[in-house]
What we know:
Blueprint: E1 2-3, E2 17-23, H1 31-42, E3 46-52, H2 58-63, E4 69-74, H3 79-85, E5 88-89, H4 91-96, E6 101-107, E7 113-118, H5 121-131, E8 138-142, H6 146-157, E9 162-167, H7 170-180, E10 184-188, E11 199-202, E12 223-225, H8 234-241, E13 246-247, H9 250-266, H10 276-287
Parallel strand pairs: 1-5, 2-3, 2-4, 5-7, 8-9, 8-11, 9-10, 11-12, 12-13
Antiparallel strand pairs: 4-6, 6-7
Amino acid sequence: MSEAHPTDAELRLPGVAQLGVLGTPIAHSKSPAIHAAAYGVLGLPWSYGRTELDWPELAGFLAGLGPEWRGLSLTMPLKEEAARLATVIDPAATESGVVNTLLRLTNDASGNAQWAGFNTDVAGLARPIERAGLDATSTVVLGAGATAVSAILAARSLGAERIAIAARRPEAAAELATRFGDGMSAISLGEVPSFDPTLVVSTLPGPGAESIDLPESLLSVPLFDVAYDPWPSPLAERWRAAGGVAHSGLDMLVEQALVQIRIFMNGDPDIPLTDEESVLAAMHAASMER
């Protein structure tokens, strides 16, 4: 599979377009409101909705989309399947094996749509962690799924020297530690890491983190929790009750969506939007609405 670099010919010019977020569960997603706010500032007549979809349905869903569909956001449990189905993928998706964004390219000779796959979760995590002034030098990642992979890469992009993966399934944590090599270790959820952590990143679903076994010493370390609905999450409540500091995953949602919109507009996650700060401010405001 080649690296994603869509050409000008492959990208349709901005016009009326359909986009959306797919996954399950999806009813709680704030992505439609966040994207709508951005498109309003940008003056784009784009429509963005949500669709409940499980991974075995993804290939058929993509095959049935008309030419008005410009791009898609993917949440769990679709990210690995999206990586498999994409025609080309970007470096972050290549390294992680995870795709959370699909951009429609031109059809192939048989008339079937081709898709470029991107991972915006890595940048979406790294940007708010950095903005909050958190130190990722020694990071504990809770969970071993697709988002945990992005958390590992985000921490490394911020200079992490040691990363411990704590998960319910020790074999999954060990597999990730082996995969990413130097500086990695795998521990159980109740185990104290072999180093003094400077940051904890939880990739666990909100309700699922309520009763997990954690060492008390970890609760004094700053937490970045990818969960955001409800907020405070059960894990954030535990942190705050112990006197610790917890940061919401809502900032990650907004930041990764900003990178997605760069892709939907320009085909490139690194090309900033026009008046990007105003777009970001509108997205943050939309994310706070109930």
